[in-house]
TrEMBL record:
GO terms for cellular component: cytosol. This is Pantothenate synthetase. One of its GO terms (molecular function) is pantoate-beta-alanine ligase activity. Beta-alanine binds at residue 71. ATP binds at residues 40-47, 158-161, 187, 195-198. Its EC number is 6.3.2.1. Pathway: Cofactor biosynthesis; (R)-pantothenate biosynthesis; (R)-pantothenate from (R)-pantoate and beta-alanine: step 1/1. Keywords: ATP-binding, Cytoplasm, Ligase, Nucleotide-binding, Pantothenate biosynthesis.
Amino acid sequence: MLDLQKGCLDLQIIKTPKELNDWAKKNKVNGKTIGLVPTMGYLHEGHKSLIQKSSSQNDLTVVSVFVNPAQFGENEDLDSYPRDLERDKTAAEEAGADIIFHPSAADMYPESYGTYVSVDSDITKILCGKSRPIHFRGVTTVVAKLFNITMADRAYFGQKDAQQLAVILRMVSDLNMNIEIVPCPIVRESDGLAMSSRNTYLSSEERKQALVLSKSLKKAEEAINNGEKDLKTIKDGIRKIISEAPLADIEYIEAYTFPGLSECGSIISEKTLIALAVRFGSTRLIDNIIADPK
Ligand SMILES: Nc1ncnc2c1ncn2[C@@H]1O[C@H](COP(=O)(O)OP(=O)(O)OP(=O)(O)O)[C@@H](O)[C@H]1O
Ligand SMILES: CC(C)(CO)[C@@H](O)C(=O)[O-]
Ligand code: BAL
């Protein structure tokens, strides 16, 4: 009954931080819980799974659609990043969102803007932080702003961006932020490719060859489940499968403890993130598994 009533509500688009903050204050005073799903838009089933989860756990769900300039390096794809708000409205509404927050860059970062939130630790320098040195500072800054604007009780992040999830968990813990972070599993295409807005950049040949990513990680997971604990053997196995794709240009295949992201020894003995970033042409894809040998 409640779900039916929810489904009848029209999705509302809010464009300014002030309007959204007023909406949030009003709803908090009325005792409503708010879930936040931060995204850069071009929504797919991965995003929809986060929205559905939020909608099942909160009275109200806000989906932010904002391609955040602060997390893109100079030679990255800020301008070409796919955008389609009409499509996002349909997807967000189908998944149970109440609000799309779609601010302009000028409203989020006015000329006077000067405050950044930065997790000053190795966890932002390893993995994707090596090739994207300003990325996580941009992510934590915008996410902290979104937490404040929406006054959310819970926020939903995909494990596809596992390092991002770990960095957000650290920010929330370090800054005593009063919000629950809900990690959500990776949603994949039926052939295994992790869903990502950037998959649209792939040519059909690149798309075909990109399957080596999920295939290699699946094999690694099977090996671990069958008792393999030697990290070098596991990483070599992943590298071998990915190298079978002539268009694959490996940036990294690495393992760290999760969610702490500390160095792990040569033998997997605790919850371990095995993550990779691989380029196909100009498209950089990431994927991972979290292995738990216990
Ligand atoms: N396949 C997926 N499964 C689960 N969560 C996902 C998936 N793809 C993205 N997410 C999550 O959705 C949120 C918003 O991500 P984002 O808008 O960057 O989407 P994306 O598809 O990852 O885009 P990109 O191509 O830029 O990596 C993040 O928390 C991210 O981890
Ligand atoms: C969390 C996020 C929306 C912040 O811009 C972005 O990094 C993303 O889409 O994962
Ligand atoms: N999903 C992470 C956002 C980015 O690559 O900028």
